[in-house]
Amino acid sequence: MAEKAGVSPATVSRVSRGSTQVSPELRDRVLRVIEEHGYRPSHFGRALAEKRHGALGLVFPGLSGPYFSELIQGFESEALETGDQVFLLASHYRADTDAKVLDLAARVDGMAIHAGTVSEAAVEEVARQIRVVIMAGEAGPAQASVSTDNSTVGDLTRHLIVDHGYRRLAFVGHPEGSPDVTARWLAFLAAHREAGVEPPADPVRLGLAQSDGAIAARMLLDEGRPPEAVVCANDETALGLTLGALGRGLRVPEDIAITGFDDMPMAALVRPGLTTVRQPVRELATTTARLLHAPLTQKDGDTVLDTEPVLRGSCGCPDGATRPTARTGGDG
């Protein structure tokens, strides 16, 4: 292409990038040749020349559900502002995830990895090559992390125990492999200790899909002495449990109180409204994308975004009730 236009390859590259460091005469000549021959610049050639790919990687365990949808939209909106492409990698907990992540690292300038998706060894190796930000977990060997405050589950649990007088509570969620669910389970336990109430020995270990909530309904409500209140690790599970309870002729919250986490749009639309914790999912994503543009050598550590309890009818409060009283101590 450069030979046909009678210019250097560097000039063709500058014109294709829209650089102003080219005279109008040369620009017109190169553009005419590009138009005549249908030339399209090579992304990989440009990346080699500029030592930048113009792309960011986003690694998740899976891409289904409103939580991940909101994260992707927030991340992509920030990438649009910087002109970056976004490459998505859904691991689905496959055994070859580490290898796929290392392969992706060769094609992007920075990578956001959802906590619990790949091994720490893989994170460390990628972080030596490009900038890595961990989402919903601690930075560890990565340059930075962005997460939301899961301890607010403790405020919600205390509200159920202290303000409503519930004593038999259950927690639905699988702590192993999910730093978020682990932190929420620990906050749930800490609230019981502070209130002097015996917690359940174990969580109901299920996933985060609405279908898991339906399974939880069978496990918790078809036995002789069901709990008075259930704290679910997310809203999808809570809504599945609510449907399961209503299908069994139980009333929410009169027969069983239910809470979630996320404050997805459906939480405010169902009746009774779902008591939950509102987390800034889009801000989590946009902050992560912004941090990926810092230098590789810059260590930003852990950023924790605030969350807020939202009280609605599913716990026994009127919709739009004020937030519960925050804790005064403890380790939740």
TrEMBL record:
Q: What is the lineage of its organism?
A: Bacteria, Bacillati, Actinomycetota, Actinomycetes, Kitasatosporales
One Pfam family for this entry, by name? LacI
Protein name in UniProt: LacI family transcriptional regulator
Q: Where is the HTH lacI-type domain?
A: 1-50
Keyword ATP-binding listed? The answer is no
The segment annotated Disordered runs over: 1-23
The UniProt entry, under SMART domains, shows: HTH_LACI
Which stretches does UniProt call biased (Polar residues)?
10-23
| Organism field | Streptomyces meridianus
Give the range the annotation lists for the signal sequence.
Answer: none
Q: Which InterPro entries match?
A: HTH_LacI (IPR000843), LacI/GalR-like_sensor (IPR046335), Lambda_DNA-bd_dom_sf (IPR010982), Peripla_BP_I (IPR028082)
